Amino acid sequence: MNKVISIILMLLCIGCKANSAAIESGSDNAAQVPAESSKVSYVKSVNQSKNSHSINDDMIAIYYGNKNRLKWDKNELKNVVMHTFKDGHKDWFFPTFLYVEFKNDAGLKFGDNQPGDNGPANKEQWEWLLNRYFSTAYNGGNFEGLKALDECIGECKKMLGEPSFVHKVVLTIPSPCTDFNEWGSIKKNGRSLKLDFKNANHRLEAVKWYVDEVVKRFEAQHYKNIILDGLYWVEESTSMTSWRKDSKSKKWTNKIGNNFNYVVDSKIRRYNDIVSDVAKYIHTAKGLKFYWIPFSGAYGSDMWKSFGFDRCDTQTGYFWGTPDLIRKPQSLKTVSDLKKICDVALINGKGLEFEVSADLFVPCYGKLKGRKDVERPYDIVKVEGCKKTPREMTAMGYKRFNYNPCLLARLENLIDVFESQGVFERSNITYYFDNKSILNLCNSTDKNIIDVVDRLARHITSRHM
Fold first, then answer.
1. DSSP E strand boundaries for 227-308
2. Residue 222 pLDDT > 70
3. Of 130 and 257, the one with more pLDDT
4. Which residues make Cβ contacts (< 8 Å) with residue 436, sequence separation at least 6?
5. Which residue in 113, 121, 237, 425 is deepest, having the highest Cβ count within 10 Å?
6. pLDDT, the chain, mean
7. How far apart are CA 444 and CA 454, in angstroms?
């Protein structure tokens, strides 16, 4: 017996020495010890020490950039970094923050498939977006951009202590607009190269330039409480549209009449031809992840993994109908529709988007501003979970709410389905709160709203414990 033990100990000793020698010589047989790369140290060093790649991640979309958005200074961010429950106790709230923008102050677009006729954004506007994200301006006693988030988390740590997770940031990549030839120039091999987006390689070069700038600027800031986890593809489908300059207005447009001018080959819509290459660059050159949030049934969304996306969260669209909602109330998605969307997404390994419309906090008994002849759609549409329409409730003598009670019921339906279909247990979730709806939810004094927000917050906080 002693001989057997001696032999085992001898073999273990030989194995340790061999592995040590292999590490010293750089052999592939060595136990892999991750080396810190200067390019991605701000990601790798934290990601390796804490599991930031959990499938149950909760990411809130922060629409930030143009003048019509919220400031998202640390006072506003505190609502989504930390949650105060109705019993008074506080806890960490959202762990991941997606900064999104798809147009600048003048309405110039950061995406190939974005609606509107103001035209594409050029390099100057792409730099404007970077400057907004990495602003160090101190306005009215508050920072904005990522600096505000970093400071907000630091202040919350003084109350809550260190979180058990890493706060992550995901930033938007503008999508080059096909055929646009007025974007600008970059330095390539020491020479100036004017980019023409008819050329796929030129579109790819523009994205690479932007990604390089994101990484360089993020590293230069030396944030203490956030890491850069990935980049977000702003398009909601993989279709390509063709942009042209109107001879009369001199504006660029990607529409013919009211329809998008899609690029087609043999009558089949073409997939965006640079997405896969963008994914490779993000992965291999930067060590980051690639995010996407297509609408349900979007062109190419069933092939999300083949395009190189690491995470794909499907929009549910449950909170919205069509502009013709009054005459066609059936255009609202039902609970049954929502369950199907959840099931299909989970089967295909996708996450889901939890969406709340700002209409929740629009007084629901008046007329549309400036249009006295038209009712607000949700005033007269009966929503699942609400026995009466808001108009009927008013007629019965109910008090005037400062929110739409039928849409609050719809929000509860959304939570119900995410519970029943197992979304909270086994899926990534992106949270989209239209306009100021998240601030209104978190600061409401109405008991019904407080109960709903606490219910949602309990799911989120339990997922990152």
1. 227-233, 244-245, 252-253, 255-256, 259-260, 264-265, 268-269, 289-292
2. yes
3. 130
4. 70, 358, 361
5. 121
6. 80
7. 12
**Confidence (pTM):** 0.82
Q: Which residue has the tokens 């790819």?
A: 204
Name the residue ranges covered by the structural domains of the chain.
57-463
Q: What mean pLDDT comes out for the span 417-437?
A: 94
Of the candidates 181, 72, 184, the one whose C-alpha atom is nearest the C-alpha of residue 126 is 184
| Cβ density class 322-333: b for 16+ within 10 Å, e for less | eeebbeebeebb
Q: What is the mean pLDDT of residues 136-156?
A: 88
Strands (E) in 155-243, as ranges, are: 168-173, 184-188, 191-195, 227-233
From 214-218, 253-257, 280-284, 392-396, the region with the lowest mean pLDDT: 392-396
CA distance 143 to 195: 34
- Asked if 290 and 309 count as a contact pair (C-beta separation under 8 A), the reply is yes
In tens, the pLDDT along 67-98 reads 889 999 999 999 999 999 999 999 999 999 99
| Residue 136, pLDDT above cutoff 60 | yes
Q: How far apart are CA 443 and CA 441, in angstroms?
A: 6
Contact 315, 236 (CB under 8 A): yes
Rg from Cα positions in the chain:
25
In this structure, what DSSP letter does residue 330 have? G
| Res. 25: pLDDT tops 60 | no
Q: Which CATH number fits domain 57-463: 3.30.2010, 3.30.1370, 3.20.20, 3.30.310?
A: 3.20.20
